[in-house]
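re: ur question from earlier - yeah i can do the single chain one, its not a big deal. heres the input i used so u can compare w yours
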Amino acid sequence: MKKFTRYVLVAAGLAVSTLAVPSWADTLNFDDLPRRADHETPALGSYHGFDWDNWYYVTAAPFINSGYYEGTVSGPNASWGTTSSFRSASSFNLLDLQLTSAWNDGLMVSFVGSANGIDLFSKTVLASSTAPSLVSFDWMGIDRVRVVSSGGIRNPNYGGEGTQFVVDDIRFTSAVPETESYWLLLLGLVAIGLLRWRKHFQRKD
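and the output i got, formated as tokens:
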């Protein structure tokens, strides 16, 4: 009986550790926002459960000679900012995103992830204006991301200048497993328990 209990406890530990890192991920690609045929770049405001401060979206087509165009990875739209942030009322895990500079090569972009007003993570990268770079984070249990960009050298092939960054395809997960995950955990534990119980009594017979 002790061996059976030990098996169940080990299985429970493995199941809980699996739930701690969700297997699903959501992607913010901004492509469900209206396409723009002009040079307007509306503020994001509230979008997909996040509040976006000093953060905008852009349709790439009118900005062919810029990092706005090069940094649009998945579809017609991408987002941009300078000194910007996004936050959620509930905690989330930031996995990665695609980053480009709108005008300057070697743009320095600093990210800070925080929870309940306490800074937990930070990362600084250099962004190109001619191609997006995948920036990986794997920051767990945060509720806000701040981004500040500076420096770099203006790309002479572009008509504009400035320290704007372009972000597309932000991948994140919820930090709290969904109800369905708990049901799967319970069913798994019951199945393991029944299997071990059956083998235990088969050996006794």
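The first strand starts at residue 26 and ends at 28. not sure if urs matches, ping me
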